[in-house]
Design goal:
By secondary structure, the protein is mainly alpha-helical. It has helices at residues 5-21, 24-36, 47-57, 60-74, 85-89, 93-117, 127-135, 156-164, 195-201, 226-239, 242-248, 255-265, 272-287, 291-306, 308-311, 314-324, 365-372, 382-395, 410-424, 426-434, 439-448, 457-470, 474-486, 488-491, 497-500; strands spanning 122-124, 288-290, 343-345, 356-358.
Length: 501
């Protein structure tokens, strides 16, 4: 149910106030206000206004604005107060059901692996092992444990099969093919944007607007676009304004400014308490051994050893992913994600909620590695790298691994990709379908990994600039369709899926 704008706004304000109340920013603002009372320019008769002015001139108001902006970007618009909480997670019941059974399937796979290998999901490490891990923390890549018995929980093609079988039970899907039938693999009726709507939403990507990654090529003198764009970027950084930074990166980030601009957009400042939190996660990794640790190890070994780009970051990848699997603050994103974290119970206390522990979100760590690795080019300090990745995950990447009707969710991206191709390149679409090379079978893995591992890193970072700039993953589907359009002539001549790939 939709809210009228005024009550929607007041609900949003109330929620943001509630969320910021317990934050360290709140206590810092209080402390600053107290300190300001000793300043001569603060007068008792105009106390409230004077303190406001002080917070404005000392830069604290900007910090508060950025925090509010960050909340608005992450959390969905408030539901009607009468709507049940699962509506905030996912409004369509059949999507919630499909996500639930997918989670059960993954958990079953994890549990059967535990039974086969007779290892628990989690256990405390012996002291000797804790010491060894601590001494090796910065060079975990040198370890060569035997992980041959561990298998990936699922592969992208398993996930695609699940999405292909999604149906809306309230929708007449008749056997007779008609124009209403979508010829692609995704058969759910979700609203996706057409080209005019995309042009409007992504107006800064228009051909008449300068783009970093194109207009800074060797053929274009830098004074035409690049120099000016860098100058504006430096100004945005000096202003420390998240909203301005988000608008700026829509045309791409200069390499030298990217790390700082992304941190500004994601509102990550790496305060002492953030570093402390990271250290606590690290000590949790040292003390406890989880089944997922072996899956992470196996995936990092496979990914890093097969990729010259990422091989140098192997140790960073272990550190970030092992800490991520212990981070309970990530659980918060489940309030607006269709997914639900798996629960286990302490032995002998099955079904008693006070003994329930959440197990790390069941994920395809292979895709995770590919979403951490590019960030290693930008951030070399582990706690900052960790926070940036965590924020990218709870804003964007989780949507690529869960079944939902959200416009940036993987189901909508697949449908948008197929619709664009079917509408604008119908002959190509039909040809590939006839030879058994459904385009989505090729592009699914690009989108589910946000193109990481498929584009050179400099190009990938330019693509992710736009994801951050538009706070949306829809650009992934547009790029996937554009790749097919670019290769259309050659693709019209292929006769098999292998040749198309």
């Amino acid at each position: 149910a939709m809210l009228d704008p005024d009550s929607g706004l007041s609900l949003t304000i109330a929620r943001i106030v509630q969320r910021l109340k317990g934050s360290s920013l709140h206590s810092q603002l209080e402390r600053q206000a107290r300190i300001s009372l000793h300043k001569p320019e603060i007068k008792l008769e105009s106390l409230k206004e004077d303190i406001k002015d002080f917070l404005k001139t000392s830069g604290w108001e900007k910090k508060l604005q950025n925090a509010v902006y960050s909340e608005l970007n992450v959390f969905p618009a408030p539901c009607h107060p009468a709507a049940p909480p699962e509506h905030m997670k996912e409004p369509l019941a059949y999507m919630r059901k499909a996500q639930g059974s997918w989670e059960k399937r993954i958990l079953k796979s994890l549990n059967s692996m535990c039974t086969e290998l007779s290892i628990p999901l989690a256990q405390k490490r012996p002291v000797s092992e804790q010491k060894e891990l601590l001494s090796k923390w910065n060079e975990m890549g040198t370890d060569e444990p035997d992980l041959s018995l561990f298998r990936p929980v699922y592969a992208p093609k398993d996930f695609l099969e699940v999405l292909m079988n999604l149906r809306n039970p309230n929708y007449e899907n008749g056997e007779q093919p008609s124009f209403r039938n979508h010829l692609g693999l995704i058969q759910v009726p979700l609203k996706v944007k057409d080209i005019p709507e995309l042009k409007e939403d992504f107006s800064e990507l228009g051909l008449n607007i300068g783009q970093l990654g194109i207009d800074d090529s060797a053929q274009v003198p830098p004074e035409f676009f690049e120099n000016e764009h860098v100058r504006v970027g430096q100004k945005v950084l000096a202003e420390q304004d998240s909203a301005a930074a988000q608008q700026y990166v829509r045309q791409g980030c200069p390499t030298a400014l990217r790390a700082d601009l992304w941190a500004l957009i994601l509102n990550i400042s790496n305060q002492p308490e953030d570093i402390l939190y990271y250290e606590q996660l690290k000590s949790n990794v040292i003390q406890h051994d989880l089944l997922v640790d072996s899956l992470i190890f196996k995936d990092v070994k496979l990914t890093a050893s097969n990729d010259d780009y990422y091989f140098v970051f192997e140790d960073y990848l272990y550190q970030v992913l092992l800490c991520f699997s212990r981070d309970t603050s990530v659980l918060e994103h489940f309030t607006y994600s269709s997914a639900t974290p798996p629960k286990s119970y302490i032995r002998g206390k099955l079904g008693m909620e006070e003994y329930a522990v959440f197990y790390p979100p069941n994920v395809n760590y292979n895709s995770f590695i590919l979403s951490v690795a590019p960030l290693c080019f930008l951030y070399h300090e582990p706690s900052k790298l960790y926070q940036i990745f965590r924020e990218m995950y709870v804003r964007f990447f989780f949507r690529l691994h869960s079944i939902s009707s959200h416009p940036s969710g993987i189901v909508s991206l697949c449908l948008l990709f197929e619709t664009l191709l079917q509408t604008h390149l119908p002959q190509l679409f039909y040809h590939l379908r006839e030879i058994g090379a459904q385009p989505l079978r090729i592009s699914f893995k690009w989108m589910v990994r946000a193109f990481s591992g498929y584009l050179a890193t400099d190009q990938l970072l330019l693509l992710w600039d736009r994801i951050l700039g538009y706070n949306s993953l829809e650009i992934l589907a547009v790029l996937a369709a554009a790749v097919f359009a670019f290769r259309a002539v050659n693709l019209m001549e292929v006769t098999s899926l292998a040749a198309a790939e």
